[in-house]
Design a protein that fits this description.
The complex is a heterodimer of chains A (121) and B (951). With 121 residues, chain A is mainly α. Chain A contains three helices and no strands. In chain A, helix 1 (2-20) packs antiparallel against helix 2 (25-45). Chain B has four domains: 1-220 and 235-258, no CATH class; 265-519, no CATH class; 595-677; 728-951, no CATH class. Chain B is 73% helix and 2% strand. A two-stranded antiparallel sheet of chain B has the order 1-2. In chain B, strands 3-4 form a two-stranded antiparallel sheet. With 951 residues, chain B is mainly α. The longest helix of chain B has 32 residues, at 154-185. Classes of the chains: A mainly alpha (121), B mainly alpha (951). At the A-B interface, helix 1, helix 2 and helix 3 of A face helix 7, helix 26, helix 27, helix 28 and helix 29 of B.
Chain lengths: 121, 951
């Protein structure tokens, strides 16, 4: 089982890293979502894997590590909040400029801010 | 009132003006004044005890391990300065209320002013030199904001930058000096340091510490050769100049020298460095002031000169000279603040500060003329005003001072300084107010309203009062303060007539020669203008330019906007660090027994790996990519179930639904495909980086999972105490709402903020501008479904809604003991609501569900916070929970826990944030022409016609 979890984490990480290196906003968002899966499962698995031992107290049973689960639970919800935020930012950027490149160098007709008059001061 | 509270008051109060400006400018100024007055009252309540020679203290441990404690003490010196800061602060607040125009953001001004005031009060009350340093840097920062208050003026911005650079650099030097000092003594507490004069002066490190501390003090107090920033800081609004550059910030350096006087003064090093610097500054700045035409520039250089005078007196190292220094600090604060404010009045009324364009104002502005006369004559040292008293005492001290074996240097140069001082003071009166009335003022001058001249008039009255009755008015204050400076009993004897002593003759010479200088001002000025002199700003800019260029070059190279490159570099760096750790560390094979692989999980794994692998290949088709993400998320949830994490599985699957919906809605407005843009080489490079990262992470977690815990985990504690301590059997939920409740509190706050930011983003997008135009002209790039709200979906979702809400309540209630809780329940309820939006349309659903999502977020965070605060009333630490078992008739015994209230807060925040995010996207859709349906079923068989009808 450990091998399956580790390979899944590795695969999701690789996919996430590949996607965040793309040039458009949507793949980068998907890549970040993949990385959140990978990181969440990673943290969860750092409590070691166990089958059929949920951390619900019953009489005299063994339990898996509840702490990593608690950490990951909030992480899942927070990563939803962050995904929603960057989706809106990407959407806003696209609607403002009609371009969904994320690198400054690739954006079409970058809206250059007025050059600050520092030199003339 | 506790000293800590007095120091904290201005900071706490700084929140108020920014809020109350909505209630008007008077309310804003009043509350600022009230805060200051309250702090001043706090000081005054301690005054009787301090006058008796007591030292008031207050201690709060902050970081005891570093020797950094929030210790405050109040002695005579601290009291004088705190009184000046707060007292003159009050006058400035009054003056600024009438000085600032309606276009200036007054709330900001008062907030900055209070921040600055707090930092200054902090400096003078600190008993810990590390704490003092913190406040010291805060004054640099807050004065930066104040000097650059008129952001639209380049002079203001440059002046603010220069002031910050010079005083900030000095502050850095001082940190070094203070740390050395603390190291010598073995304590960072001022009261301890001040007892150890011999230890400090005998140390080899005395000289470096002295130099570094003096660098801090000289830069702050604008002593030669660091004086150049002060005149440039005059670009600030006049209330700032009057406050910072007469009474407070520039006096911080003097305060520090006075504070450290008992342990640092008295050595030849101290005398030659401090006294000489002060003397040079005094004479040089006084000379420059005479040739300045800008009223504020004249006053700025005169301030530099007077600061030099006080520095010189402190440098003499004798108790008498230190007493005179204290007396002159008071006098200078009174007459200089009055003069600055008057200069502001002249500027305000005539719209110019250029002396060459003024003159003859005596008849037009009689009140201002009177105030300026009193203050300027005091500055010139004319009897019986207070400036005369301290100047004569100063001249008297110079007579007794030998400089490098020479008896003449000090008195002669001091007399020359006094002479220039007389000349520029009289020039200020004569060239601005005397002479014929002109007809070419930029604006018709007249005296301002009472509110504006009240503050300088009060100060001018004080100038006279102190001048006429020095011993009655400030004698005791000077004695108490001077005693605190010299660390012993000071003797104070101030009088107008000392007999025919040398100082009298020096005074007379200075006045006479000063008048002669003024008479010959024209030819002298021609000479001054024709001699080349170093332009401080040009030199400063020339020094700063290479630094700025280097910084810009580094920034531009590192931060060129290519996000993919940053991420690639960051990933490779982490990989390299991990590889280095792997290569240099030692490893033993894992010993933990592996969990067997069952067939069903293996199938799930295959699905996950297949979907992830497909994402590499098919991510360009964005819709397909989303489907794949859904598959992966589902498999991760299933994995959580299998691996004993039911709570995680429930959370993951509900988050998954919300995320996919959100991305789908966003994708509606984004391109549906990602074109191939990267070269094959770049894709190969990215693939290599991704593969390396995946292998590294996979190997790391495999290594972790196949080894036992190196240390006993704290999970044992949580498992053991969940039921007896937290009253719940679901350990994960108990950790969230109890053991780590504070953590969760922070997390729901973040989630709430994310929701609000999304709302704000959409609000900004729809307010107008290119995004709004684009939406208004939106043409859907895909065919629309004719049946927007399918009958089956509408009926099904409405049937499900009550059940879903019931499930939400159930999940919430059982959360403490079984898988569930606020997070999951919140997501379930949010999704059930979103389903209504999707099925029946936004307008229909919104009309029936009138809950404000902002309010939900606010209530959620508030309830969770109040639940934490509630434990204070039971005399327990923040967020301690309690629970008990109750029995009601006809019901079984049941449990109530305060943690459930906290969980309710979590629930509300989650619902609010998720709904706010999705509702925001709906608003974009509506702006893009999506019709708002009123009826639940609005089937549109003819798509073309319906679209046109909607527009």
């Amino acid at each position: 089982m450990e091998l399956l979890v580790a390979s899944a984490v590795g695969m999701m990480t690789a996919c996430g890293v590949y996607l965040i290196l793309r040039k458009r906003s949507f793949p980068v968002i998907v890549g970040l979502a993949m990385l959140s899966y990978a990181v969440n499962v990673f943290i969860f698995a750092s409590g070691r894997v166990a089958i059929g031992l949920p951390p619900i107290i019953t009489d005299g049973a063994a339990y898996t590590d509840p702490l990593t689960q608690a950490l990951v639970l909030t992480a899942i919800v927070i990563s939803f909040g962050m995904t929603a935020l960057i989706v809106m930012m990407a959407l806003g950027a696209f609607l403002e400029t009609g371009d969904d490149h994320i690198g400054m160098e690739e954006r079409e007709a970058p809206p250059l801010p007025a050059k600050p008059q520092e030199g003339a001061e | 009132m506790s000293l800590a509270l007095i120091a904290a008051l201005p900071f706490l109060g700084a929140l108020l003006p920014g809020l109350l400006i909505r209630a008007g400018r008077n309310a804003c100024a009043t509350v600022t004044g009230a805060v200051t007055a309250l702090a001043l009252l706090g000081i005054l309540l301690h005054a009787p005890a301090v006058m008796r020679g007591e030292v008031i203290t207050a201690q709060i441990e902050w970081l005891p391990a570093l020797g950094l404690n929030a210790n405050f003490f109040l002695d005579g010196l601290g009291m004088l300065f705190a009184g000046l800061i707060l007292g003159i602060g009050l006058l400035i607040i009054l003056y600024a209320r009438f000085y600032l125009s309606t276009k200036d953001p007054m709330g900001q001004f008062y907030t900055y002013l209070l921040l600055f005031q707090g930092a200054m009060v902090g400096i003078v009350l600190s008993d810990n030199i590390l704490l003092l340093l913190v406040f010291w840097e805060l004054t640099s920062l807050s004065s930066f904001l104040l000097i650059g208050y008129w952001k639209h003026l380049p002079e203001g911005r440059q002046g603010a930058r220069m002031a910050l650079t010079v005083t900030g650099a000095g502050g850095l030097a001082m940190i070094g000096g203070m740390l050395i000092l603390g190291n010598i003594v073995g304590s960072y507490d001022l009261t301890v340091i001040l007892q150890n004069k011999d230890l400090i002066q005998a140390s080899d490190w005395y000289f470096p510490a002295l130099i570094l501390i003096l660098l801090g003090a000289f830069t702050k107090s604008a002593q030669f050769p660091f004086h150049f920033w002060l005149p440039h800081a005059m670009a600030a609004p006049t209330p700032v100049s009057a406050y910072l550059h007469s009474a407070t910030m520039v006096k911080a350096g003097l305060f520090l020298m006075a504070r450290m006087w008992p342990v640092l003064a008295g050595t030849p090093e101290w005398f030659y460095i401090v006294a000489t610097t002060g003397l040079i500054t005094m004479v040089m700045a006084a000379k420059i002031a005479l040739f300045k035409d800008d009223l504020k520039a004249l006053l700025a250089f005169s301030t530099v000169s007077h600061l030099g005078l006080i520095t010189m007196l402190l440098g003499f190292g004798t108790a008498e000279a230190a007493t005179v220094a204290v007396f002159h600090i008071i006098n200078h604060a009174t007459f200089k603040a009055a003069l600055f404010m008057s200069a502001g009045i002249v500027d305000h009324e005539t719209h110019t500060r250029d002396i060459k364009r003024l003159g003859g104002l005596r008849h037009l502005m009689p009140i201002t003329f009177t105030i300026v006369c009193v203050a300027a004559l005091s500055m010139a040292g004319i009897p019986p005003l207070n400036g005369f008293l301290s100047k004569e005492l100063m001249l008297e001290e110079t007579v007794h001072t030998v400089w490098l074996g020479n008896h003449w240097v000090m008195p002669v140069l001091a007399t020359i300084g006094a002479m220039f001082s007389v000349a520029y003071s009289f020039r200020l009166i004569a060239h601005t107010f005397l002479g014929p009335v002109r007809d070419d003022y930029p604006s018709k001058p007249h005296d301002p309203g009472f509110g504006m001249w009240a503050a300088p008039a009060l100060l001018a009255a004080m100038v006279i009062a102190i001048g006429v009755m020095p011993m009655t008015t400030v004698g005791e204050l000077v004695r108490t303060t001077a005693s605190a400076v010299i660390g012993g009993e000071a003797e104070v004897y101030i009088s107008h007539w000392h007999g025919f002593v040398p100082a009298l003759w020096m005074s007379i010479i200075a006045v006479g020669a000063g008048l002669v200088l003024l008479g010959a001002h024209k030819p002298l000025e021609a000479m001054w203008l024709s001699t080349p002199r170093p332009e401080a700003k040009a030199i400063f800019d020339a020094i700063m330019e290479p630094f700025a260029n280097a910084a810009r070059a580094v920034t531009d190279r590192l931060h060129d906007g290519a996000l993919a490159r940053y991420l690639a570099v960051a990933t490779l760096t982490i990989l390299a660090a991990g590889y280095f750790a792997y290569e240099t560390g030692t490893h033993t094979p894992g010993t933990r027994a592996l969990t067997p692989i069952e067939p069903v999980p293996a199938i799930g794994w295959l699905l996950l790996m297949g979907a992830t692998g497909s994402l590499f290949t098919y991510h360009r088709n964005r819709l397909l990519a989303l489907v794949l993400v859904g598959v992966i998320g589902l498999m991760v949830s299933v994995g959580f179930v299998y691996l004993s994490a039911p709570d995680l599985a429930l959370t993951q699957i509900s988050v998954e639904v919300a995320t996919v919906m959100l991305l789908l809605l966003a994708l509606n407005f984004l391109p549906k495909d990602s074109p191939v843009e990267s070269t094959a080489g770049r894709r190969g490079r990215d693939g290599f980086i991704a593969a390396a990262a995946g292998l590294g992470i996979g190997a790391l977690i495999y290594a972790l999972m196949t080894r036992d815990f190196a240390f006993p985990t704290i999970a044992e504690y949580h498992l053991a105490n969940s039921k007896p301590g937290g009253g719940g059997t679901n350990v994960v939920n108990v950790i969230l709402v109890d053991f780590r409740g504070y953590d969760t509190f922070g997390e729901i706050t973040v989630l709430g903020i994310a929701g609000l930011v999304i709302y704000a983003l959409v609000e900004a997008l729809l307010r107008g501008g290119p995004a709004n135009d684009r939406l208004l002209a939106w043409v859907p790039d895909q065919k629309r479904a004719g049946d927007r709200h399918p009958l089956m979906l509408v009926v099904a979702t409405r049937m499900i809604l009550p059940i879903a809400l019931m499930v939400g309540v159930y999940i919430f209630l059982r959360g403490h003991n079984e898988p569930g809780g606020g997070f999951i329940a919140g997501l379930v309820v949010a999704i059930a609501t979103i389903m209504q939006y999707m099925a029946s349309g936004f307008g229909w659903a919104a009309a029936r569900q009138r809950i404000d999502y902002h309010a939900l977020i606010g209530w959620g965070v508030t309830i969770a916070g109040l639940c934490g605060v509630g434990s204070w009333f039971a005399a327990r630490p923040f967020m301690t929970t309690n629970y008990g078992y109750f029995k009601l008739p006809f019901l079984e015994k049941f449990e109530l826990a305060t943690a459930a209230i906290f969980d309710l807060g979590v629930f509300l925040t989650v619902v609010g944030a998720v709904m706010l995010a999705l509702a925001s996207i709906s608003r974009i859709a509506i702006r893009a022409g999506e019709t708002v349906n009123v009826e639940p079923f609005d089937i549109q068989p003819d798509e073309e016609a319906a679209t046109e009808g909607a527009r």
